[in-house]
Amino acid sequence: MTPAILTLNAGSTNTKLALFDAADGTPLMRHRVASTQEALAWIEALDTPLHAVGHRVVHGGEDFCDPVRVDEHVLHALEALIPLAPLHQPYPLEAMRRLRQRFPELPQIACFDTAFHHHQPPLARRLPLPAAWAERGLKRYGFHGLSYQSMADLLPQHLGALAHGRVIVAHLGGGASLCAMQQRRSLASTMGFSTLDGLMMGTRCGALDPGVVLHLLRQEGLTLEEVETLLYHEAGLKGVSGISPEMHILEAQYDQNAAAREAIDLFCASAARQLSGLLPALGGLDALVFTGGIGEHSALTRQLICQNLAWLGVQLDEAANRSHAPCISHVESRVAVWTLPTDEESVIAQACRHHVPPSAL
């Protein structure tokens, strides 16, 4: 039986798994379970031999700018980064350790969401704080890098020469961000030091006046833990609507429920405002690409965002947008607009095939 590559995206609420043929990278199956423990049970029950396991890791810090084979030194280095992403970093590390205990000879590869942005210009990564704080790791890292790498690999197939021009990719899902690319490389992104920054999201606030945090702590008496819960889990679409963080649920009530409409309108206005802030890095815009769960499936969201960008010459083909066609821009639009599916798991699987080549089979 042909060995397979397993990709594992471990999070706080679920773990996504996928299998790929190790010889040619063909996708074989995808699965989702509730916890790392259930993921291990699922792996134990596989009747397919594993060639390697690839993990999505949110934070690679300054040192990890490419996928890396996991060993004890790497694990210790990634554990030291937990303070930079305390709500995301521990879960893949737990999965790595459990797999090392159960399958000590199985190669494991860590792939980083920050890596795609690692080579942004220094100014794009600088926070307006004293240099001493930058030296302690307070800078803009950017996230969703595996999704953006997936898009960078896919763009030439659809956009041709335009893929190498001035492109902004909108990764819109439960987490949401934008990335400005030229020559299919990241020049700037809306997520910065943390995954809270930039766009309004499903339950996260996005860009927020830091004075609000100070006010909540000093005047309202909230604890640090209460502020963290508010900003990460009770804000965004969920907080504004008071209904749900799920875009499709809010869309169903858009015409009847003022709170649902306000949440969606604010989400789309936030995206357009943040996109506008990326334009100086590019000097203009040739193409806008929507991806992610919302970006790929919500025609209303794409329509409202593009309406907010009409001043850029963005025009949608309404019928193409409603039918979720790949190219959804009007023939007279000055900016090409596309909807393309992201595939982070394939990016991880490809990294595994690079570090543990099929010739090793």
Task: Describe the protein.
By secondary structure, the protein is α/β, with parallel strands linked by helices. The chain folds into 2 domains: 4-141 and 344-360, 2-Layer Sandwich (Nucleotidyltransferase, domain 5), CATH 3.30.420.40; 160-339, ATPase, nucleotide binding domain (Nucleotidyltransferase, domain 5). 39% of the residues lie in helices and 17% in strands. The chain is built from 15 helices and 11 strands. The chain has a 6-stranded mixed β-sheet. Strand 8 (176-182) and strand 9 (185-189) form a beta hairpin. Helix 6 (145-159) packs across helix 15 (344-355) and helix 11 (258-282) crosses helix 13 (299-307). The mean pLDDT is 96.
What attributes does this structure have?
361 residues; alpha/beta; Nucleotidyltransferase, domain 5; 2 domains; 5-stranded mixed β-sheet
Radius of gyration: 21 Å
CATH architecture of the largest domain: 2-Layer Sandwich
CATH classification, class level of the largest domain: Alpha Beta
Count all strands and give the number: 11
List the helices and strands and how they pair.
Elements: E1 4-10, E2 15-21, E3 27-33, H1 36-44, E4 50-57, E5 68-69, H2 72-79, H3 90-102, E6 108-112, H4 122-125, H5 131-135, H6 145-159, E7 167-172, E8 176-182, E9 185-189, H7 210-218, H8 224-233, H9 236-241, H10 247-251, H11 258-282, E10 287-291, H12 292-297, H13 299-307, H14 318-322, E11 336-339, H15 344-355
Parallel strand pairs: 1-4, 4-6, 7-10, 10-11
Antiparallel strand pairs: 1-2, 2-3, 5-6, 7-8, 8-9
Helix pairs in contact: 6-15, 11-13
